[in-house]
Structures
1.
Amino acid sequence: MSTLTVPAGSTGGSLGSPAPDAPKAPGTGGLVELRGVSKWYGNVVAVNDITMTLGPGVTGLLGPNGAGKTTVLHMMAGFLPPSRGEVLIGGEPAWRNPFVYSGLGIVVEREAVHGFLSGWDFVLASAKLHRLPNPEAAARRAIELVDMVEPMHRRMGTYSKGMRQRMRVAAALVHDPAVLLLDEPFNGMDPRQRLHMMELLHAMGEAGRTVLFSSHILEEVEQVSGTVQVIVAGRLAASGDFRTIRRLMTHRPHVFTIRSSDDRRLAVALMGRASVAGIDIDPQGGLTVRASDYGTFTRELPKIALAEQIRVQRLVPADESLESVFSYLVGA
Amino acid sequence: MTTLTPLTPPTARLRGRLALFNPTIARITTRALFGQRRFLLLLPLPVLVVGLAVLTDASGVHPREWVDAVVLDLGLTVVLPVLALIIGTGVLGTEIDDGTLAHVLAKPLPRREIILSKLVVAVSVTTVTTGVPLALTGFLAGSPSLALALVIGSLVGALAYCALFAALSLLTRRPVLIGLAYILIWESLLQNILDGTRVLSIYQYVLTVVDRVANSTLVSANLSLAVALAMTFIFTVGFTLLAIDRLRSFAVVGETS
């Protein structure tokens, strides 16, 4: 899984990581498999022919908003039927099969909870609904894991977004599931809570659980997981080791707009550099620079400006949106 | 820092159970129901029925005249179905609307167990909130047998109405609107125009049961008891099974969808 696979063009077929079709040995409760899964609503295709296999460890499901991450997670969670293909949890279909939940924990993005319940009531109810032999001990352990012991007897209506989120995570892992699915789990968390949650997911992955979390923020995925599945416009755009994807992203061509004390002279100086692919001069003032290499260009620009004694007044990446990063990945 | 115990899949133990009722679901459902504003707003309705009965009786009107207007026309055709509508959709529809149903769905519970637990709550609350005030009016009319008949009638109505409205919650996004249309158009309006619709009206089953149990001249019904009971059974079981099947295939939508 350490190689990056980026499909050429947008044709289907062999997307993403290789999906082993080998039959599963008993005890592979932690395996999540998608085989040729598509989901459409009328004429709108939300998920397009995705095949992936997730094993123990933490995997990030990365993609811009609206890419289909939630749809993929909901299909894995048995909340939606795939229009085509198969979704298997531990070898069993997820749809119309409530018993998969004995080995599966889910934290959906929609953060609805009954505000009248205390955090303790909520997690304990979850433990009882799982019919755990000792629900009190299981609830206690789960609440300790998310570091919510102190406020656990307060009504959940009084919690902050981050606290509710952690209690929902506690309820989802109260039965110590082999597979944990989390949709945008870091939303609404402060940096300290975020760090703690990242450690918790790490620990679960280390302990052999299959943890999948979705995010549209690169840095979150980078910090938590080594393995990543990138979804763009319903398709699996890339999958594999995060560092490879990160390298591709930092070395992608990049557009900057620059304002300086002498645009034309700066343009002449920049043109001689290999890291610059092209320059447009705006008649109203300013330059648009197409850098061929993000990292090298941003290191070289200050040196050139200093040597030429030009003052750079403004340097704005024109194309920094996540969508452009992803569309670059897809087009690569 | 984190210790995780080895996995013990309890699937085998869960699969073997005959799951009919779950106290945890029932308890949370009840607390959620009594916390709803629209439910609390409806509680004055039963009080209104009792109040009207007391007033008319005190002003010297014979029960023969006010039982028809207050108990049957207001109590059985309005209060019972409207309370059953709010409660029957309240135990399921509101959890679908606010998304809390996902917590229950993500548990290894047969969907039958979820529906039946919620229906037990809905039927009990409906029977108590309509049966008790209606029984008071029965005593006021000087007929303990009418009081008993109204409690049993409330239970019969609660069973059929709650099953119907719970199934509606899973079939449509606007269960209250469609439920109201059933009560107002089908049961109230068409009944007066078309005799044939009587056999498909829960109100007629309730009226028949009340009539036969009370054995009083104050109430008269149009159906035979056997037909009324058989149809109540069909409504209750049919819509309960439909609700269970719909919940099995219930698609949880995300926030953005």
2.
Amino acid sequence: MSTQTSGTPLRSRLLGVDVLRLGASGLTSRPTRAILSALGIAIGIAAMIAVVGISTSSQARLNAQLSALGTNLLTVHPGSSLGGSDTTLPVGSTEKVGMITAVERAGSVGALSDLHIYRSRLIDPAQSSSIDVTVAEGGLRPLLGAQLTEGSWFSPATEQFPTVVLGSIAATRLGIVSAGSQVWLGGAPMTVIGILQPLPLAPELDTAALVGARFATDRLAWDGKPTTIYERSADSSIAAVRALLPATVNPEHPESVAVSRPSDVLAAKNATDAAFTGLLVGLGSVALLVGGIGVANTMVITVLERRREIGLRRALGATRAHIRRQFLTEALVLSALGGIGGSVIGLGVIAVFAATHGLPVAVPPAVFAAGIGATILIGAVAGLYPAARAAKTPPTSALSA
Amino acid sequence: MNDTVIELDAVVRDHGSPPVRAVDHVSLTVRRGDLLAIVGPSGSGKSSLLNIIGTLDRPSSGRTVIDGNDVQTMDDAELSALRAYSIGFVFQQFHLADGATALDNVADGLLYTGTRRAERRRRATAALTRVGLGHRLQHRPTQLSGGERQRVAIARAVVSDPTLLLADEPTGNLDQRSGASVVDLLHELNDSGTTVLVITHDTAVAEQFPRRVTVRDGRIVSDLRGAES
């Protein structure tokens, strides 16, 4: 028999494990409501994780692409003269670039803008399919790392003959799928000897029909002026080469020569994606905020509905702090459920997106940690007010009918 | 050892604004081992009195000493501890969790004493056996009759072995037979040493207790002992 007398320092105590048990059981007694209000948080977290994950996966692909392609490729184009008129690159520029000590490889293309290519001679000359007939000069293929889906690249023998190598898009537009097909170019039949894979560092060649320099000079009246020069050098000397190129190509008017770095263009494209990603993350955080308000709302309703339970617990010896802790834990468990569910949904979205877009799945684990951490923070904030209200519920609530 | 479990001295409780006097200068002494009923019609202030005795509410004025503790000087945590260890409550509507078994409902009576769950269940089993429900441990409240539910609620109230058991209309929701068995159980608990205070509006129920305090308009109008019918 209890013989508690005045001064005995007995205290109400609630074990930590029991706080968790209470928080979880409050939710399992109303599962539908718990799932629905956790869903709000889950959607917000899923959106944010999916957006960040897709962005990091794209970045991973870009990095893989750049390291495969190399970032040491520079291109030289004709720029504008001081007067603003279009310029051309001088004949022999490619050889001059090749003579710069640091340059490992150089090659060029020259547009034959007067010529068009057709599937056959029967096609109306007006339907030129926007394919640029282009002369390939120098070691273009190893320079660009070009791979062929069909056939082969020019050899010293084949480039003297009426042969053509098609860019990937050009082949699609012409409806050519295999080497050995005939096309109609400059009023004569030519044989397709190869089809290129897409060239990420030289996308302009995807829509090109390439012909050999010898054949172009002899038979297509090419003036020998390149329109784009490509060169690669050691990574350490890129800046030096870049500075040398304009004066090397056109010593009289170096200002009319433009130099660019295609890998920068790829990276810049990704940077614009990053701005878009920021926008989506913003939308995701709005969803998360709304989810948090949903949790707070659910908890406020729960507290109102459970006045009797609170009164009973107070009668059983719960202090205000115990009641507060119970409802705060319930809010935390609720939003943590949302966070975990949202992470799973988000990962699923990333996996589906990556599978359909051929991306690697690369999500830093910190993203999940941050996501679940954010939900716990939201749960704490959302649960604060309802828990304080629960703690203020008078103990007499169990008796008042 | 203090022999007085409840000591009220000129206790007043006003509710609302303008104030309505629910308890009007009530003085009452209950000794260890007493078994009494506070009887009065609805609105007589007996529930307000129970809230004050159970330390769920504080009087507007007057002195309240429960199990040797002066309620006026105690903070929320101290009052909660007093309820956790020294006072057991039984309610008219039972207040059992439908989702939990009888055993776990009773074990919750020890939740705020920091007792581990295994020990809570062990003592809950003993308490349920004591109220004659040793064969109903795993039943849920919805599977039990009204009388059985009130026995579960009583087991929960006594599982912590409190000095004082307070019962608010414990037979109010029960038929006559179940009500009688609950009254018998309260007598048994009193025989084993627990001080039992019952609140009822039913004079027939009150007649079954050795001491009957009649309340009307917030005042004690009679305090009779003996002549148990």
